[in-house]
């Protein structure tokens, strides 16, 4: 029996190094075969670091942060900064205003851009190329260049401090028209011909045949429009002069204390995270469609 025990013990001693060597070899092969994945993970963590840092700041008291930023890495953490946001009774009104403006602008941009894209890609009408070039020229005109004229027009029409006044300027979306036009052009024209043989008119072809195929492009355009509208600060600052019509970006900025960067850094970080949460949720929900659109897999 002693000889058997010694033999089994020697076998274990021999096998253990072999197993460790085999595990190391497999791990080395995995690293060699997934270099690109590791690089992408490292880049993702690098890009995520500022967001995680802001989250850490938002969970620390302002008194601790005044002693040094290294307090982010130490307990305790607190949600008091987020509770301070809701102490302002107007914050839910500002949140509702941002949702109404962003969703309304996204909805109408998708409708107008889809109709315009279909017209430029599939229909023939006078001066089509000239009109399309004029629309694309809008990409080269910055908002600041027309802000005075826009302000005077909306003042004359008494449209300031209204949802229409906040939404209407964003409906001019040259990029949306260009994106939808190119996407409609990528759809095979044989689909139109087949639908025409089934006695479908132009609108039926657009609504039932072509529009469902543009879902990836619409998702991309929708999230970009929602993101732009949600983060817009310049035009709401000019158009919304009454506190009840503030969007979340204007409302949060107006509630910041003096010297917030030095005396209220945690509160400032919590405001940034709070205002970014809807955007993060929207992107998570639509990311599959966005990847499909970028990969060019929307049309089969």
Question: What do you see in this structure?
Answer:
With 300 residues, the chain is mostly helical. The protein folds into two domains: 80 residues, no CATH class; 208 residues, MetI-like fold, CATH 1.10.3720. The protein is built from 16 helices and no strands. Helix 5 packs antiparallel against helix 14 and helix 12 packs antiparallel against helix 16. About 2% of the residues have low confidence.
By CATH reckoning, the class of the largest domain would read Mainly Alpha
CATH superfamily of the largest domain: MetI-like
Largest sheet: none
Counting helices, strands and paired strands, the structural category is mainly alpha
Strand content: under 5%
> What shape does the CA trace take?
flat
Q: What is the count of structural domains?
A: 2
Q: How many strand units? A: 0
CATH topology of the largest domain: MetI-like fold
- The H-and-E topology, N to C, reads as HHHHHHHHHHHHHHHH
Low-pLDDT ranges: 9-15
Mean pLDDT: 83
Radius of gyration: 28 Å
Tell me the distance between the termini. 71 Å
- Residues in helices, as a percent range: over 70%
Secondary structure tally, helices:
16
What CATH architecture label of the largest domain applies? Answer: Orthogonal Bundle
Index terms:
flat, MetI-like fold
Task: Summarize the SSE layout with pairings.
Blueprint lengths: L1 H32 L1 H24 L3 H6 L12 H6 L5 H32 L5 H10 L9 H10 L6 H5 L6 H13 L3 H8 L4 H9 L4 H17 L2 H6 L8 H8 L4 H4 L1 H30 L6
Helix pairs in contact: 2-16, 5-9, 5-12, 5-14, 6-9, 10-11, 12-16
């Amino acid at each position: 029996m002693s000889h058997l025990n010694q033999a089994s013990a020697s076998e274990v001693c021999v096998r253990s190094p072999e197993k460790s060597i085999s595990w190391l070899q497999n791990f080395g092969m995995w690293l060699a075969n997934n270099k690109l994945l590791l690089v992408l993970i490292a880049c993702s963590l690098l890009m995520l670091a500022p967001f995680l840092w802001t989250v850490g700041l938002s969970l620390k008291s302002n008194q601790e942060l005044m002693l040094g930023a290294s307090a982010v890495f130490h307990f305790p953490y607190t949600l008091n900064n987020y509770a301070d946001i809701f102490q302002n009774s107007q914050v839910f009104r500002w949140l509702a205003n941002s949702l109404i403006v962003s969703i309304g602008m996204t909805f109408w941009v998708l409708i107008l851009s889809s109709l315009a894209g279909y017209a430029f890609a599939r229909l023939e009408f006078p001066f089509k190329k000239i009109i399309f070039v004029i629309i694309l020229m809008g990409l080269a005109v910055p908002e600041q260049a027309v802000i005075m004229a826009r302000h005077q027009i909306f003042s004359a029409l008494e449209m300031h401090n209204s949802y229409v006044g906040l939404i209407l300027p964003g409906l001019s979306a040259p990029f949306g028209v260009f994106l939808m036009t190119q996407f409609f052009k990528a759809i095979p024209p044989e689909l139109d011909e087949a639908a025409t043989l089934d006695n479908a008119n132009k609108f039926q072809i657009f609504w039932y045949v072509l529009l469902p195929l543009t879902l990836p492009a619409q998702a991309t355009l929708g999230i970009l429009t929602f993101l732009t509208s949600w983060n817009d600060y310049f035009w709401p600052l000019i158009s919304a002069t009454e506190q009840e019509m503030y969007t979340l970006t204007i409302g949060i900025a107006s509630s910041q204390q003096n010297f917030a960067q030095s005396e209220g850094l945690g509160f400032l970080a919590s405001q940034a995270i709070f205002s970014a949460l809807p955007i993060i949720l929207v992107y998570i929900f639509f990311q599959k469609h966005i990847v499909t659109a970028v990969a060019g897999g929307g049309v089969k």
